[in-house]
Structure formats: structure tokens, C-alpha cells
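Can't attach files on this board, so I'm pasting raw text. These are the components:
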Amino acid sequence: MARPNVSRQKVLDAAAELAAAKGISATTVDEIASAAGVAKGSVYYNFESKEAMYSLLITDALERAALRIRAALNNAADGTAVATVVRAFLMGIDEHPAAGKVVATEMFRLDRPWNESLAAQRDVFFSTLQDALVRDGRESSVSDAAAVFGAMLMVGFERVVFSPSMSLERAVASAAR
Amino acid sequence: MARPNVSRQKVLDAAAELAAAKGISATTVDEIASAAGVAKGSVYYNFESKEAMYSLLITDALERAALRIRAALNNAADGTAVATVVRAFLMGIDEHPAAGKVVATEMFRLDRPWNESLAAQRDVFFSTLQDALVRDGRESSVSDAAAVFGAMLMVGFERVVFSPSMSLERAVASAAR
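---
Top answer:
C-alpha cells for the assembled complex are below.
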């Protein structure tokens, strides 16, 4: 990963906000530079292309979420492991709602240059969720992990987009069931 | 809705297949016409634009799914209502996997002309799922409906894309829990 710098993070934040509002395809590098308050050259100094920028944004967000839920699982008590993992995931969306929306949007797409990194991180998510299900003495096949993953993704999305008043604990209880 | 005709259905099927494989933005009307085996003029005879075509495809798929799960609920026994609804939804994806993939992809996007019809159908899905949860004596708030919806969407997607050997009953058991 390149060394972090201020412009670079500003660019990534602006890219996330714009794509969350109107999609990646409709977002231009000019708009990103303008929203970040940097020159267009500075965007291209930090990123090869718009694709490379969104690829990094999505990979970073997924890695961060994967690390976060794995750490939560390591500290979870048996019997509440799934709830602990779901809570950690939803708190991650609370901290980075724009990145969360972009990832949710891209999750189901099969036509993107970052598809491979999505697939790799999907495996990490699924194996963490399967471990959590085992820790709670629940069924833990791939379909069970997919069900919890889908539930926490949709509940998180619902909370960010349509129902901001939904409490974290209400969301955890629904998604962890 | 316009009167159905053979070319029209061929065009919609080709549009679904192409968008499922590579996304709506990357799909051109020329490719759709070619895959459907019709002249480009015939596409524009049936649809104003690519956007209008995908809008109809998505609206049709959602309406079909919403009617299907509502009918399933009406015939479901108390105690197995959620499982019955989830099974009906997953069987719908089995019948129309390409349309299912396109809808899953678009579900989380906020930047599309068909966003309003997605939002309207989302309400129908949520209220059907809430009714099913009530019929099973389960918690039935919006977050619970979102959890079941996310679970069945992700399990269905997983089954279509990554795990085609997952049985319907295995998928239902995981998503309806």
C-alpha cells in the first residue's frame, strides 16, 4: 500500500461520498478533485485511474471490516459470538457510512475490476461468520454464513439509508438471529 | 404495460442475460439486439431507451417476486410462514436467475431512474415479510423484515453464483431462521 498522505485520504473520502450518492460510473475524477479540494493532478499523482481509486477504496473498506469482525470474534464469549460480530460490523458502517454504501452496491456485481478482491474478502467474511456460528452452537454451513452476512448487510443498509432511527441493539438483535 | 410480443420478450431476456454477466452500464443496445436476434429498430420499437428497458425488466421482476411471496404467504400455515415465503422467493430466482442477479445488483443503488419503483416494491416485500413473521409468532419490526430479506437475497445470490449445488431446502432453512 502507498504511504498515506493527507490529499490521498481527502480524495478517497470524496470519492466515497460521491459514489454513495450517485454511483461510481456517474462520478468523474474532476468532481472528486473538486469535492476533495485538490488539483486533478494530485488525484492522478496518488492513483493511476478512477478504477484504481475505487478498487483501493473497496479493498480497504472490506479489509477493515474483515479485520474488525475477526477481532470481535476473538474477544467474543461463546453463545454471543454472532451478535458480537454483527455489532462490530454495524459499528463499522456507522463510522464509514459512505464506504459501506459503495461496498453494498458493488457486492453483487460480477463485472468489476475489483471483483477478485471482493471474492477473496467474501471468503474471509464467510469463514469468520461460520466460526461465530460454531461458537454459538448453531448450524454453520456456507448457506448459514450467507444468511447472516445478507441479514447484517441489509439491516446495516436499511439503517444508513431508510431508517436512521433504528437503534444499534435493535439492528444487532434482528441480524444476529 | 404494452401488449406482450415475441420480440419484446426476447429482447428482455437478452437484456437480463447480458446485464447479469457484465452489468447494465457496460451493455449496449447493439449487443442486446444481436443477442436477441432482432434488428436494433425492433428494440426501439418496443422500448424508448435502454433505461426504459431495464426499468421495465426490474419492475417486472420485482412485481413478479412480490406477487409470488404474497401468494405463498396466503397459502402458508402459521409457524412455517417465513419458510414458505423464503422458499417461494428462492424458487423465483431459480426460474429467472439472470433477472435475479440484475435486481440484486440494483437493490443497493440510489442513483438509478428505477429507484422509485425499487423503493415501492421494497415496501411490499417488507410488509409481506413482517406479516409472515407475525404468523410465525416472531419479532416483526422493520429490522427483522430487513434481516430476513437480506438473508434470502444473499443466500439466493450465493446459490446462483457461487454454490449451485446448495439444495433449495438447505437454502430455505438458513435464510428463514
